[in-house]
Design a protein that fits this description.
With 304 residues, the protein is α/β, with parallel strands linked by helices. Helix content is 33%, strand content 23%. The protein is built from eight helices and 15 strands. The strands form five sheets. The protein has a five-stranded mixed β-sheet with strand order 6-5-7-15-8, with helices on one face. Helix 1 crosses helix 2, helix 1 crosses helix 3 and helix 1 crosses helix 4. The longest helix is centred in the first third of the chain and has 26 residues.
Amino acid sequence: MRKMHGARDLYAGRMDDGRKTAGAVELKQLRCLVAIVDTGSFTDAAHELGVSQAAVSRTLTALEGVLGVRLLHRTSRSVAPTTVGVQVLARARVLLAGADELVREATVGHTRLHVGHAWSAFGRHTTEFQRRWHEQHPETELRLIRHNSPTGGLAEGRCDLAVVRAPLDLTSWSYALIGHEARCVALASDDPWARRRSIRLDEVRGRTLAIDRRTGTTTLDLWSADDRPAVEYIHDIDDWLAAIATGRCIGLTPQATAAQYRRDGIVYRPLRHAEPVPVYLMWRTHDAHPATHTAIALATELYR
């Protein structure tokens, strides 16, 4: 394969014998095609792009040469895309939009703070966190992102900070403990336990427990090895809620879930004799957002 040349090339390749199979499609060529079609002429496209009409013609010819197809029907009065040209044009718009978004993300940079979470962000503090952030730090846009992964999207590059409750090995990350949340029991609203004010941890071993092994906070380590409840493993918060609503399972979860996921057919009751769940903010050690410690301070204040 011929060496790629960064953002300028969308695809490039050669056969082993050196024969050309596809050239390098450049973003400027796609912009030229879009400009010609949108403005309706080579002259207007040249004006929009700030180049000469001859340059527009050369760029389009180069694109058609790379693709090996005619993209436009040209007359002295009009231009119109060919059948293939319509397909290329549609794809070009998608690619150009993606490239523009990439540039915006890179240039906007730290004026946005993305906070990821797997289930319930800051729980009952979520709305207040958003309000205070908007009031106190209007220069930095806050975005909350739910991502169904153990790190709430941090490992996947989806966010700058992540709210993490699931038991994780934190040694690969930088993190700060922002608070603790008591555990509660999620029940179907017609479950006999729904009439009770609270449930003891040792009572749960007689029930079937819905557990999300990937992002949930509950593990069987809460009980001794020979005295554990039956388990139904689920894949995300929606599956967890559905399993509980049917009555075939119950769930153990931090209070944040009860605050964020109030659903018809499900009630939450406090769980007694169980350790609270620690809540962390976690970030990449060598790529901390400038607003990281500001976010930690606000979250810690709300949990306090």
